[in-house]
Design a protein that fits this description.
By secondary structure, the chain is α/β, with parallel strands linked by helices.
Amino acid sequence: MARVLIVDDESFVRQLLRTYLERAGHIVLEAPNGKEALDLFAAQRPDLVVTDNTMPELTGADMIRELRRDAPGTKIIAMSGFPSGDGLLEVNCLLPKPFTREEFLSAVEQALSRES
């Protein structure tokens, strides 16, 4: 069981991923944008961050750069319909949209099993 932070501006995506993760036994935290995610990360220190790239206030790529600077060992999965951008190269896994439940859970388990 891990504590996973989902960062996506679309509430239905967060809810779907929450359902997948909770059914797999994980604890889930949610943020609707990168700015709120950084605050939540600092307070809760999740084991894994799963983030979209295109979001208001702070993009996923910008949030990832800040996490890598402040918490370099953070395990991160980036979800993107457009898998490009320099910030997205700093992740443990790049998960192109759309993806299946099985692909998502496999990426989560692979990211969690990697050494920090």
